[in-house]
């Protein structure tokens, strides 16, 4: 049997197959049917605005000869996209099979629905079909629909998952703000920190990107074939089409009005948004790698999943697969987002269609990120600090106290205390490349001419207490 003969159709990509449960919420906003439903919303709201006007024009019909819709009629028109389901998808597809044009198919689909208008809807008749898509180019509908789809997907699906990661890390940063941890710079033992402070670094970084995303503008336009309102004025020269356009984009579509475009809205806001999400992805990718290495080092222990297999041949293994999965999918998401950011800002003269097919991959770009967020969250919930390993690492690396000792010697020398010359070199001779213990550190301190207060302060230090104000810094992660 051919797999292509199986019904329902087998998914080609893992986002709609193996990982469907993790990415399914995005279908509501970034699938092809979701886009067509949003196109219907735009078309319907445009009709209502043209027929019923707005406060800026005295709530009079924008176009002469069109009677305002009643509340019942408006409710019916708005039900067209809301009721767009499996049968509607088939009906739209049938139109597109003939038109080979997805937006024209939407227009014809809306025409079809007029026959279902409730009794007494005198204004919804065949003559009113002329109002559907009035003075619009396809991109008037598309740019608004895509902006609303992306905005809703980011605000209702991606951002909550992203914020969940931040909130989890923030809670763990607070919980472990005093848990001393051996740092590694260049992979070598270095000045200790705390686990909470290291997690707070990620919280701070991610929160900055979250603010950019929350403040993101989503631009839209409705101004005709090349952005001049030419057809609008030719048909209805007495209408203030600029005011109508602004009203529709800002107050009916909930977007930022773009007054200057070619046939397409220039997509700069998309490039900005996708660049920011890609940046956030890369920060979380860094987190995945760091946690993976902490697990490898034993700083984090994993909670085994009952029944799960870590290796087909090594039964003892508990693999950090959630972090590895997240790492790979962040990379895939970034590659798509970077391509979108780079290509969408260019268009040949007033219009070419490269953006049309490119934008159909927005769902995939966010889908891979959504999948990565899902796995990262699962991974973070399955780990906990391994106190035994953390304590052992600190106890085995007393040489990290070379930094505070030589720095204190410098301060004493600056105060004029004798015998403190060449502090860095003296400490280097004792500690570099050597494994030393507490007794050797204390003996070195005793050999120097420290004042009693400084000597006592240095001798009270241990690798576990030499963390500066790391625990206090956690408060700045927000």
TrEMBL record:
Source organism, top-level taxon: Bacteria
Molecular function, one GO term: N6-(1,2-dicarboxyethyl)AMP AMP-lyase (fumarate-forming) activity
Fumarate lyase N-terminal domain segment(s): 17-326
Domain Adenylosuccinate lyase PurB C-terminal, chain residue ranges per copy: 347-467
Coiled coil spans: none
Pfam families: ASL_C (PF08328), Lyase_1 (PF00206)
Keywords for this protein: Lyase, Purine biosynthesis
Keyword presence, Lyase: yes
Keyword Disulfide bond: no
Enzyme Commission number(s) of this protein: 4.3.2.2
Pathway given in the UniProt record: Purine metabolism; IMP biosynthesis via de novo pathway; 5-amino-1-(5-phospho-D-ribosyl)imidazole-4-carboxamide from 5-amino-1-(5-phospho-D-ribosyl)imidazole-4-carboxylate: step 2/2; Purine metabolism; AMP biosynthesis via de novo pathway; AMP from IMP: step 2/2
BP GO annotations: IMP biosynthetic process
Function (record text): Catalyzes two reactions in de novo purine nucleotide biosynthesis. Catalyzes the breakdown of 5-aminoimidazole- (N-succinylocarboxamide) ribotide (SAICAR or 2-[5-amino-1-(5-phospho-beta-D-ribosyl)imidazole-4-carboxamido]succinate) to 5-aminoimidazole-4-carboxamide ribotide (AICAR or 5-amino-1-(5-phospho-beta-D-ribosyl)imidazole-4-carboxamide) and fumarate, and of adenylosuccinate (ADS or N(6)-(1,2-dicarboxyethyl)-AMP) to adenosine monophosphate (AMP) and fumarate.
Entries under PANTHER family matching the protein: ADENYLOSUCCINATE LYASE (PTHR43411)
Protein name: Adenylosuccinate lyase
Gene: purB
């Amino acid at each position: 049997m051919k797999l292509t003969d199986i019904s329902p159709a087998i998914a080609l990509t893992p986002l709609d197959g193996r990982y469907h449960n993790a990415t399914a919420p995005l279908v509501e906003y970034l699938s092809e049917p979701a886009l067509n439903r949003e196109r219907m919303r735009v078309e319907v709201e445009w009709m209502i605005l043209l027929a019923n006007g707005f406060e800026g024009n005295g709530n009079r019909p924008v176009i002469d000869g069109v009677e305002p819709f009643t509340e019942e009629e408006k409710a019916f028109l708005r039900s067209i996209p809301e009721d767009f389901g499996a049968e509607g998808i088939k009906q739209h597809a049938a139109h597109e099979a003939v038109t080979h044009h997805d937006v024209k198919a939407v227009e014809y689909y809306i025409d079809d629905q007029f026959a279902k208008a409730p009794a007494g809807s005198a204004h919804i008749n065949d003559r009113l079909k002329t109002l559907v898509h009035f003075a619009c180019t396809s991109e008037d509908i598309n740019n608004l629909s895509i902006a609303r789809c992306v905005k809703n997907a980011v605000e209702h699906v991606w951002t909550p998952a992203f914020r969940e990661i931040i909130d989890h890390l923030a809670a763990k940063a607070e919980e472990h703000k005093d848990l001393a941890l051996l740092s590694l710079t260049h992979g070598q033992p270095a000045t200790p920190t705390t686990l909470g402070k290291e997690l707070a670094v990620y919280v701070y970084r991610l929160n900055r990107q979250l603010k950019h995303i929350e403040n993101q503008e989503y631009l839209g336009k409705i101004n005709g074939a090349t952005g001049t309102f030419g057809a609008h004025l030719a048909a209805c020269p007495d209408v203030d089409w600029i005011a109508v356009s602004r009203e529709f984009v800002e107050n009916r579509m909930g977007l930022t009005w773009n007054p200057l475009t070619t046939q397409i809205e220039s997509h700069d806001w998309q490039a900005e948004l996708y660049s920011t999400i890609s940046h956030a992805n890369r920060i979380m990718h860094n987190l995945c790698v760091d946690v993976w290495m902490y697990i490898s080092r034993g700083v984090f222990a994993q909670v085994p999943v009952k029944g799960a297999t870590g290796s087909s041949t090594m039964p003892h293994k508990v693999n950090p697969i959630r972090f590895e999965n997240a790492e790979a999918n962040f990379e895939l998401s970034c590659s798509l987002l970077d391509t979108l950011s780079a290509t969408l800002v260019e268009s040949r003269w007033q219009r070419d269609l490269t953006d049309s097919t490119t934008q159909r991959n927005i769902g995939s770009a966010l889908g891979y990120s959504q999948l990565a967020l899902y796995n990262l969250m699962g991974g973070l919930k399955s780990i906990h600090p391994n106190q035994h390993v953390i304590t052992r690492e600190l106890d085995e690396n007393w040489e990290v106290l070379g930094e505070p000792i030589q720095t204190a010697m410098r301060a004493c020398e600056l105060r004029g205390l004798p015998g403190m010359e060449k502090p860095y070199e003296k400490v280097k001779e004792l500690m570099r490349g050597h494994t030393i213990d507490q007794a050797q550190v204390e003996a070195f301190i005793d050999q120097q001419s420290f004042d009693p207060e400084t000597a006592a302060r240095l001798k009270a230090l241990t690798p576990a207490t030499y963390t500066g104000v790391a625990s206090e810094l956690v408060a700045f992660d927000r």
